[in-house]
Hints:
With 293 residues, this protein is of the alpha/beta class. It has helices spanning 4-32, 57-63, 98-115, 139-151, 161-171, 190-199, 239-262, 277-291; strands at residues 37-45, 67-74, 78-84, 119-125, 129-136, 177-182, 201-208, 222-225, 232-235, 266-271. It has two domains: 4-32 and 76-291, von Willebrand factor, type A domain (Rossmann fold, 3-Layer(aba) Sandwich), CATH 3.40.50; 37-74, no CATH class. Helix 1 (4-32) packs across helix 3.
Amino acid sequence: MISKELLAKVRFIEISTSKLVNTIFAGEYHSVFKGRGMEFSEVREYDAQDDIRDIDWNVTARMGAPYTKKFVEERELSVMFLVDLSSSGQYGTHGKSKSETIAEICALLAFSAIKNKDRVGLILFTDEVEKYIPPKKGRSHVLRVIREILSFSPKRKRTDINCALKLLNNVVTKRSTVFLVSDFMSENYDNLLKIAHKKHDVTAIVVEDPSEKAFPSFGASIDLEDAETGEVFSLAPGADFRKRFEKEGVSRKENREKFFSSIGIDFININAGSSYIDPLIQFFKKRIRRINR
């Protein structure tokens, strides 16, 4: 039974994203994520402007006149969302948690997908795959996907991106557009991500909280709990600690982006609780420029 609160939240996300989909993202989405190539449409009489290589010789022989095959762009796509539901996603210091921001981003992209008549699928993961929904079309299906992202209660707390990539590589055989949405608090996913990107068009969406890059100011001491391990510890963050913390955050980001770039994966950095519209628009514009070169 779906609660009224959840239905209201899903409805709010649908309403708040629909205007963006209709006015901003639908055109960019269509331009950026194209189909797999050209598909056969029909056979018609040959014209002098046609490519001789497209002549259908069997039909030509039967009809006694040259006929050619007509092709159109194959637009339909499968769009897969790989969504990190580990406990670190519950963290947020700027009004929204990382998991809430992730849900809204996925909703916006999913509604853009169905507006273009694409199929949408979902893999929810922690350090194991918690749920897999195969790609399907339609508004009701996308609403189900969004409900799952918002309300699913994972059994586990930790993060392992590899488990989602293994399922993607083994089960989704058709080339798809893939959004891997996580805070990327995970290790050793390089090899499987390389394999996934060879088979699919993968975009990494990195959702972090600002305090994970610049440690906030507190008093003399603070008690902290690791959301994924449950470990509790006390910390007295002085100026040196904050400098080291920020330096490690910068290094982690640089190494991650260097790896993404080395294998040709597009990535988007988004702060939880901040607007994700501008980063997504910049991402679309960057891809459109690259396609039009």
